[in-house]
Every structure is written in structure tokens, then in C-alpha cells.
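seq as requested:
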Amino acid sequence: MSYEDIPPPEPKPIDETNWMVLKGFMERAVLRGQPHGDEKCDNCIYYLDPDESLHYCWHPQIRILVGGEWWCQWWEPIPADENEAPAAS
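C-alpha cells:
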């Protein structure tokens, strides 16, 4: 099969379903693709690996892959004492 014989990509039904789920997250979480002042995902306690520019947010209301420069309403600073638990949401 040559490159010319490959059909152009088209979204599948699962893509529409995934978009609707993620859109709901964005609306409920006030999830934004840019920081809110100094607040951003990679300096939030719920961002699993702050050394990565794209990683998992483990906040119970989100639990999705997010960008380090993103922000949501549940942002919480990383405590000075890393053993300190995050505040209840």
C-alpha cells in the first residue's frame, strides 16, 4: 500500500464520546490551558510529577492528564513540608 492509498484520518465515535467527557471536566473544573498568575499545575500538590511538562493530575474531581502550564479552580500549593497532606476539597 502506498502513502497515496491511505485514507485521510477521520474521527471515530469514541473521539466524540471522549471529547464530551473531557469537555465536562473542563466546565466543572474551570480547567484552563494557561496559568492563573503564579498558580499552575506544575506547582500544584495534585500534579504528580512537577519535573514533567505533561503529567497526571490526581485531584479527585479531575484525574486526567494535564499540562504543567495549565490551571484549575482546585489548585493548591505544594506544602513546604512535603509530608503535609493537602486540604480537604
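The mean pLDDT is 88.
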